What does this fold into?
Amino acid sequence: MAKKPAQTNADDYLRMYRQMAKIRAFEDNANRLYLEAKMPGLTHMYSGEEAVAVGICEALGSTDKITSTHRGHGHCMAKGADFKQMFCELLGKAEGYCRGKGGSMHIADQDNGNLGANAIVGGSMGIATGAALSAKLRGSKDVTVCFFGDGATAQGLMYEVMNMAALWKLPVIYACENNGYSEYTRTDEIAAGSITARAEAFGIEAHKVDGQDVLAVNKLTTDLVARARKGEGPFFIELETYRYHGHHVGDINREYYRTKKEEADWKKNRDPITNFGKWLTKEGIASADDLAAMDAEIKDEAKAAVDYALAADYPPEEEVDAHVFSGVAHARPYLSGDAA
Ligand SMILES: Cc1ncc(C[n+]2csc(CCOP(=O)(O)OP(=O)(O)O)c2C)c(N)n1
Ligand SMILES: [Mg+2]
It folds into this structure.
């Protein structure tokens, strides 16, 4: 188990700010790559939710595990992923985390304890719970955080694994990112009752926290991680947050399901990066100029990584059936020109 630095000094706060700004810069570039038709497929932007991923992942050590979602870039970056490898993966390049074969929704980074994003809503819940069972059986003391959205609480798997995790006291934290929407539907139109009460029904201690407040998220998670290591888990956290973009990058006309005013209000009043920046300046930890310089440096770093990824090589044709688990029999004839 790698040590997690205590949240006690300026460096820790500045690292959290930097991580959130890096996620925002990553997403701004990913969105641009899509709009300029340079990125294959589509992607789901994490902008607006940065304090959730960063507050939680900053409470974890490098050997602790996470599982992620279709909206997973923020989780990957917060757990230590590198700009260049991330952009390479989005663009299908050989240097990407999955050699360009996973794309936006399947990025795994085992070296940093990221067991993978998952395009199946709720699909990572079984993986996270299994990882926690493995840690317990091996006596490793590692904790697993399972990220998922409010929409995933409609999946039966969640209730199966929470039952097991509670019975077996597994070191897992279920982190529900409640951004108010599941695709184009408001959560309150489809989710009955309280989300935390569902976890409590299994005897799981559940908390609700402001997901736009990185310090509140980090403080709560640091405490729960320490307790999970001592065998007091599992735990459940519901984090209230908001996605600034549409469900995915192509969802640009959103007024039929939410107002422009609602989006503007969240951006103006509850932006996690702006608000944390204000706190840092108020506390004398950084000046506005320091933060502006950091933002500019991160933007340059992101742009350089995009340029690098655009120029990088695709995987060679010969390895089309390497590192994948299906589709090989279908792909071969097309590549060789033998398909009817
Ligand atoms: C099992 C399954 N059902 C449906 C979908 C289609 N789908 C993709 S994202 C999504 C909504 C997920 O909402 P939520 O869990 O709240 O996550 P958010 O997109 O808000 O981050 C749906 C229904 C899917 N990918 N997997
Ligand atoms: Mg949602």
